[in-house]
Design goal:
The complex is a heterodimer. Chain A contains five helices and six strands. Chain A is an alpha/beta fold. Chain B starts with a strand and ends with a strand. Classes of the chains: A alpha/beta, B mainly beta. Chain A: Keywords: Cell cycle, Cell division, Cell projection, Cytoplasm, Cytoskeleton, Golgi apparatus, GTP-binding, Lipoprotein, Membrane, Myristate, Nucleotide-binding, Nucleus, Protein transport, Transport.
Chain lengths: 182, 416
């Protein structure tokens, strides 16, 4: 990728390019989701200390997806990446009930960010392959998603591991990009 | 005209030259005699005669001394270098990926920029962190020492500001505000009186270091400026832009002198050669171009790469050019012929540089390795392995016996 490629992906993108920010707590499955989107091997994924960027073609768009590490000590740096974001994807580990409050808090703070104001948000209720996973409806309720009124939003249950539900989410992304970009 | 008197002669190893300190009237001045073509087997007597003819300050009384200096330069050039580099230290105090790295002139200190919004100053010999320069509100991307002095550090950030720091104390002297987008390149002028910054806002700015004020805005590009560089004398600056062109500006007036038009893709890199006669540019259009720095006319296109050219540089003497793409290449700046292909990296090469002596080339790649190459033959001399993610930046110290590499894996490595 190199620093120069990062600069190219940083500038305001032409109509056919979409900048997607992938956020969520550590171990939510962001990198697995990113690799699933890029059809890459997902068997050896380690915690992201910085960021990963991949470009994927979908429905006539070039989706530049930025996967940002979610560990607590590096969450204050999420802000480094807000500029020119077209779509926010927020990933939740649906089986990690102990941290629903924490993840809800982080999401609420993101939605308050000026640089992300009005940016459509897709919430992936990930890890539905686990038996203990909470259904998307329960998460939506727990996180009070229905109170989001300043932007379009969607919650989509998925398994980044199996790929189930991922494409449905990305369809929503492309649909909502097209209304914004065109 | 005031009388001129030579005070003393100094050596400059890279590029080879002799510096004359002299007094004119009451003023103390310096000038240099560049010996860019000097080789270990150059006829010293003939060369010194030539120098004497050209330079009135060199009188019969100091000829012996000049001969001695030239011989020292030749010895330096002739030194066999089979230094094997090995890992000395891994520095892990940045908590997010590194951006750029830079040495001071003597190589005693170096700096690293990071996504963690800091720039750190390190002691090269011990690997100890001397200062963490904190205050930016976003990624610290572009960094520089005011070489050859090295007493100041400049940092350019995605927070749209640039800061000037004291190397000694780590205190911030000035914060330069005015750009309306990320600052991604910067450079001190050789006199260390000005700082130039290039931004994604399509402008470059010149700042007065003493006053802490903006001196000029270089307005003319229609897209992001991602590279800039002063010439050796400091009276010209070039800006490379995503608008496919390079601007040549007069530093004194801030006026655009030439626009180098010809590339069919974004510019990735642009540099003057030592004697300020040539400009080399690299582009996403897979080519490099050579231009006359004086007239701004196109001289040659260095084609051959099959992918985007991500970096390009002259050697210290300005006689050869190294280019980075999927592979790296070395060209003769005079004949424009490709001298060597540096093949072996398994992913794109994002940075390339010569060692000061010019016999060795260092490349940094997305394949997580840095490699050393023989500049004449293109043979890979060494693979520096250990980083666990892409290497974004690399640098040689002036002596050429220490290398630093900065990586997306959040670490910086020192190699001896």
């Amino acid at each position: 990728m190199g620093l120069l490629s990062i600069l190219r992906k940083l500038k305001s993108t032409p109509d056919q390019e979409v900048r997607i920010l992938l956020l969520g707590l550590d171990n939510a499955g962001k990198t697995t989701l990113l690799k699933q989107l890029a059809s890459e091997d997902i068997s050896h994924i380690t915690p992201t200390q910085g960021f990963n960027i991949k470009s994927v073609q979908s429905q006539g768009f070039k989706l530049n997806v930025w996967d940002i590490g979610g560990q607590r000590k590096i969450r204050p740096y999420w802000r480094n990446y807000f500029e020119n974001t077209d779509i926010l994807i927020y990933v939740i580990d649906s089986a990690d009930r102990k941290r629903f409050e924490e993840t809800g808090q982080e999401l609420a703070e993101l939605l308050d960010e000026e640089k992300l104001s009005g940016v459509p948000v897709l919430i992936f209720a990930n890890k539905q392959d686990l038996l203990t996973a909470a259904p998307a409806s329960e998460i939506a309720e727990g996180l009070n998603l229905h109170t989001i009124r300043d932007r379009v939003w969607q919650i989509q249950s998925c398994s980044a591991l199996s790929g189930e539900g991922v494409q449905d989410g990305m369809n929503w992304v492309c649909k909502n990009v097209s209304t914004k970009k065109k | 005209m005031a009388a001129m008197a030579l005070r003393r002669l100094l050596l400059r190893y890279f590029p080879p030259g002799i510096i004359l300190e002299y007094v004119e009237g009451v003023e103390s001045k310096t000038k240099s005699i560049d010996l860019l073509d000097l080789r270990p087997d150059t006829d010293v007597t003939a060369l010194v005669e030539e120098i004497q003819k050209r330079e009135p300050l060199i009188t019969a009384s100091c000829l012996e001394h000049v001969v001695c200096l030239v011989q020292r330069l030749q010895e330096k050039l002739g030194e066999k270098q089979n230094h094997k580099f090995s890992l000395f230290k891994v520095l892990r105090t940045h908590i997010l990926p590194l951006t750029n790295v830079a040495f001071n002139k003597s190589g005693s200190r170096f700096i690293t920029g990071s996504y963690d919004r800091t720039c750190k100053l390190w002691d090269t010999a011990s690997g100890e962190e001397l200062h963490s320069l904190e205050g930016h509100r976003n990624v610290v991307y572009a960094i520089a020492f005011n070489n050859p002095y090295g007493d100041k550090i400049a940092t350019g950030s995605f927070d749209k500001t640039c800061k000037l720091w004291s190397t000694e104390t780590g205190k911030c002297y000035h914060t330069f505000r005015g750009h309306s987008a990320e600052i991604v390149c910067l450079s001190f002028n050789p006199q260390s009186t000005l700082l130039a910054t290039g931004s994604m806002d399509t402008t470059a700015k010149l700042w007065d270091l003493e006053k802490g004020e903006e001196v000029a805005t270089l307005n003319g590009h229609s897209a992001e400026i991602i590279a800039l560089s002063f010439n050796t004398t400091g009276d010209r600056i070039i800006t490379g832009s995503f608008d496919h062109t390079v601007g040549v500006w007069d530093v004194g007036t801030g006026r655009l002198l030439h626009t180098l038009i010809g590339h069919r893709g974004e510019i990735s890199s642009a540099q003057f050669n030592w004697d300020c006669s040539l400009i080399v540019t690299g582009s996403m259009d897979k080519t490099c171009m050579l231009w006359s720095a004086v007239t701004g006319t196109h001289i040659a296109t260095l084609a051959g790469h099959s992918r985007e050219v991500l970096d390009v540089c002259f050697d210290y003497a300005g006689q050869r050019i190294a280019t980075a793409s999927a592979d790296a290449r070395v060209y003769n700046a005079g004949t424009k012929q490709c001298i060597a292909k540096l093949e072996g990296h398994e992913d794109e090469i994002s940075k390339v540089c010569f060692n000061p002596k010019g016999n060795c080339i260092l490349t940094a790649s997305s394949d997580k390795t840095a490699r050393l190459w023989d500049a004449a033959t293109g043979h890979c001399l060494q693979i520096l392995e250990g980083h666990t993610d892409e290497i974004f930046s690399c640098a040689f110290n002036y002596k050429g016996d220490t290398i630093i590499t900065g990586s997306k894996d959040n670490s910086c490595r020192i190699w001896h």
